[in-house]
Amino acid sequence: MKRLPRGFTLIELLVAMSLFGTIMTIVAVSLGHLARADHNTRDRIDRQRSLQQFIVRLRQDIHEASSATISSGQVPPGDGNDAADPPTPRQTLTLLLQDGRSIRFQPTSDGIERTVTADGTEQHRESYSWGSPSDATWAIDTTHELPIAILTLVIERGHASGTEQYVIQTTLLNSEPNNNE
After folding, report:
1. Residue 97 is assigned to a structural domain of this protein
2. How buried is residue 29: exposed, middle or buried, by Cβ count under 10 Å (0-12/13-18/19+)?
3. Hey, how many other C-beta atoms are within 10 angstroms of the C-beta on 147?
4. Domain range holding 139?
5. Which tens digit of pLDDT belongs to each residue from 81-111?
6. Is residue 61 part of a domain?
7. Is residue 178 part of a domain?
8. How far apart are CA 43 and CA 35, in angstroms?
C-alpha cells in the first residue's frame, strides 16, 4: 500500500509563522531607520548646499561693496516667533555698491534674506534657508588696511544634536584703505 505524503503539523506551522513574523518585523524596523537616516542626510545636504550658495553670494557682494553698515532691529511679526515670546533682536548688514545699489542681508527665523535695491526700488529678493533656527551676528573689523566683514552664524541642528557654528570673514576690496598709523 502506498502512503500519502504527510502535511505539516499545527505546531510546525505556528513556529514557521512566528519566525516569519519576527524576520518581517526586523526588516520593517530596519527600513524605517534607513528611511529616517536618508531623510536626515538629504536635509543636511540641502542645508549645506544652501549655506554654500549663501557664502559664495555673500563673498561676491562684500568684494563688490564700497561700504558696509550694520543696524539692529527686531524680528518682524510672523517670522517664526510665538506671540508670547518677546521680540528678538536681529542685526542687518547693508552693503553699498559703487553703482549705487544696496544689498541688505537680514536674518530670518531659519536663514538669511538678501534684498537688492536701487534708487529706493527693490530689484531682487532671495532667501537662503537651512531649515532650522539660526542666529547671525555681523561685525566689521577696521583694524586692518582694508575693512573685513565678519559673520558668525550659529545654526541649531535639532533636538539634542547641538549646533553648527560658522565664522565667515571677507575683505571689502572696493573700500577706501584705513589709515591706522
Report:
1. yes
2. exposed
3. 22
4. 34-76+88-171
5. 455 555 556 789 999 998 999 999 998 888 8
6. yes
7. no
8. 12
Residue whose entry in the numeric block shows the C-alpha cell 553670494: 57
Domain tally for the chain? Answer: 1
Q: Which three cell numbers stand for residue 18?
A: 512566528
Q: What sign has the CA pseudo-torsion 11, 15, 17, 18?
A: positive
Residue pointed to by grid coordinates 531682487: 124
pTM score, whole prediction: 0.70
DSSP label at 9?
-
Categorise residue 68: left if φ over 0, alpha if ψ from -120 to 50, beta otherwise: beta
The CA distances from residue 34 to 24, 89, 131, 161, in Å, are 15, 40, 21, 18
Cell of 117: 535695491
Sign of CA dihedral 132, 62, 64, 60: negative
- Does some domain include residue 125? yes
The 3-state DSSP class for residue 46 equals: helix
Q: Give dist(CA 90, CA 60) in Å, integer.
A: 23
Report pLDDT digits (tens) over 28-66: 999 999 999 999 899 888 888 988 999 899 989 988 888
Residue 175 C-alpha cell reads as 573700500
96 in Cβ contact with 102 (< 8 Å): yes
